[in-house]
């Protein structure tokens, strides 16, 4: 499989497209710039199968409805944030963007627990990694050795926890128990900034030194 990082939206949040040899694809966190993302997908002749959301902050959901409706595909989100898509206060767009409110229709599938998620020929493990937000989840593809971590873990940093319902200690626990338990060669496809690996963060991330 191949994966592509696409910074999108008002603060250039990383969306990702994971594609297999049959040009089927999964889309992670389409944060904005819907027309450009849709054009890119069509130019690559990909057939999207679903949108997977690591969480529902505004910068991760801005193009959800455009992409969902264009390709007639379902959206997956953790149940803890089921109301966030339609509420600018919960998804924080009202606080960060002022009069520009970002919303989306409800998710088609709510994830309620850690599980193996099968979508077409794709299969991944859903890891609950709350702390940045209560419904933050990471999608781990074991054979591809990659985890899409959203805003839980960054290269040399971790997700912010000063927003409503953020929890710093819970985030550290999530990283320690769920992400640091993955093989060291696992690529971490972060919600912002460059990708990294579990091994690099284990050795050098200053926020994790005390774990």
UniProtKB/TrEMBL annotation:
PANTHER family noted in UniProt: HYDROXYACYLGLUTATHIONE HYDROLASE GLOC
Organism whose genome encodes this protein: Alkalicoccobacillus porphyridii
UniProt keyword annotations, A-Z: Hydrolase, Metal-binding, Zinc
One Pfam match: Lactamase_B
Top-level taxonomic group: Bacteria
Family matches, as InterPro entries: MBL_Glyoxalase_II, Metallo-B-lactamas, RibonucZ/Hydroxyglut_hydro
GO molecular function: hydrolase activity; metal ion binding
Cofactor: Zn(2+)
Positions of the Metallo-beta-lactamase domain: 12-192
Stated name of the protein: MBL fold metallo-hydrolase
């Amino acid at each position: 499989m191949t994966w592509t990082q696409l910074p999108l939206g008002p603060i250039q949040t990383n969306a990702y497209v994971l594609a297999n040899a049959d040009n089927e694809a999964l889309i992670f966190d389409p944060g904005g710039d819907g027309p450009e993302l849709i054009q890119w997908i069509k130019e690559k002749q990909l057939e999207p199968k679903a949108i997977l959301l690591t969480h529902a902050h505004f910068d991760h959901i801005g193009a959800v409805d455009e992409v969902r409706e264009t390709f007639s595909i379902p959206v997956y989100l953790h149940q803890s944030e089921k109301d966030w898509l339609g509420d600018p206060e919960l998804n924080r767009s009202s606080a960060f963007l002022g009069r520009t409110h970002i919303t989306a229709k409800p998710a088609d599938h709510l994830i309620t627990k850690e599980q193996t998620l099968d979508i077409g020929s794709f299969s991944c493990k859903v890891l609950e990694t709350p702390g940045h937000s209560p419904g933050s989840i990471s999608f781990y593809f074991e054979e591809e050795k990659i985890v899409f971590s959203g805003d839980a873990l960054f290269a040399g940093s971790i997700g912010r926890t000063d927003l409503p319902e953020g929890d710093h200690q819970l985030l550290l626990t999530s990283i320690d128990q769920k992400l640091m338990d993955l093989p060291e060669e696992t690529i971490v496809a972060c919600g912002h900034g460059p990708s990294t690996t579990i091994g690099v963060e284990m050795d050098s991330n200053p926020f994790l030194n005390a774990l």
